[in-house]
Amino acid sequence: MPTASSSSAPLAASPAPIRKAIIPVAGLGTRMLPATKAIPKELLPVYDRPIIQWVVEEAIAAGIEEIILVTRSGKEAIENHFDAHYELEHRLERKGKQTILKTVKNIIPAHINIVSIRQADALGLGHAVLCAKKQIGGEPFAVLLPDVLLLDAIGSPHGHSFKAMMAAWQQTGHGQLMVEQVAQDQVEQYGIADVNGANITPFKATAIRQLVEKPNPQDAPSNLAVLGRYLLPNSVMQLLQKTQPGAGGEIQLTDALDALIAQQPLNAFLTTAQTHDCGNKRGYLAASVAVGMRDEGTKEYLQRIVSQT
Ligand code: G1P
Q1: What pLDDT, in 10s, does the model give residues 49-60?
Q2: 228-to-22, 43, 75, 173, 268 alpha-carbon distances in Å
Q3: pLDDT at 12
């Protein structure tokens, strides 16, 4: 795996490690209706496990020790998924179904703490992050958006970009935002990073000059989209408290991060991973096929079905 480096000089003292990750799960999943009428979108399965489990596993593999779910009423099934289910475990045990039992027991390793916090009003991603302020305390933190699946976190030989991004934080103490290049007509769906025309290369952190949430394609400073993996200094929480509603009338994390740039360096971290937005039907289906293709047992079958369709 290439080593991460920063465009800016590293801090003299080594930065506090990032141990806590916020995963906002309070969205209503309207782009996935009717599938998400009664089921949280985060629990829709991609291949053999819910989307949220892939993302939690990605965070844990990168060294995160505490997962903070920012959730809402009606989404309790997410918490249940990570909890013990004694009756099910007992029955599987009694029937000697050890292989299945292993997949449902201890989804979260014993050393990982998972907590949930309610977001009463859907006021935007920035507001969701701010809801976790008390639980974060004075520490730097990660944010992972569960709509986005990064395939390099699912057993790729090319490295694990979120883990590499954590290493970049550890070297520099500078905030890191994972980015990827998107088509110009898609920039209006994302936070877009302006890297001052720098030639951005994968796994090498590059200084961001400005961030814009969902710009019009003609005004976008680049096609580098922030894709849902953030490593942030604690001071972002203070900035969020002052952030006014922005794009879509919501309190945008992107706007607080744009303000952060005036105080300290913030880097874009280009991933090479295949990414899928599971928050829409096309991306969700693509993610399921892509993960299914990684299983030798399913690959041929999938190829046959697709070629016959
Ligand atoms: C959010 C962020 C946006 C980011 C995107 C990634 O937007 O606000 O900056 O690029 O996630 O998926 P949303 O998709 O929630 O509208």
Answers
A1: 999 999 999 999
A2: 11, 18, 21, 19, 12
A3: 57
Domain holding 276: CATH number? Answer: 3.90.550.10
> What is the total count of domains within the chain?
1
Q: Does residue 92 fall inside a structural domain?
A: yes
What six digits make up the tokens of 252? 């945008």
Q: Is residue 15 part of a domain?
A: no
Cβ-based neighbours of 116, under 8 Å, separated by 6 or more: 68, 69, 70, 71, 78, 79
Q: How far is the CA of 252 from the centre of ligand 1 (A)?
A: 9
Separation between Cα atoms, residue 176 and residue 107, nearest integer Å: 28
Site residues for ligand 1, CB cut-off 6 Å? 125, 145, 147-148, 190-191, 213, 225-228, 252-254
pTM for this entry: 0.93
CA of 198 relative to ligand 1 center, distance in Å: 23
Atom of ligand 1 nearest to the CA of 247: 8
* Domain coverage including residue 297: 20-308
Side chain identity at residue 142, one-letter code: A
Residue 4 within a domain: no
User: Hey, which of 125, 147, 223 would you mutate to test ligand 1's pocket, going by the most ligand atoms within 8 Å of its Cβ?
Assistant: 125
Burial of 207 (0-12, 13-18, 19+ CB in 10 A): middle
Q: Is the pLDDT of residue 1 over 50?
A: no
Classify residue 5: in a domain, yes or no. Answer: no
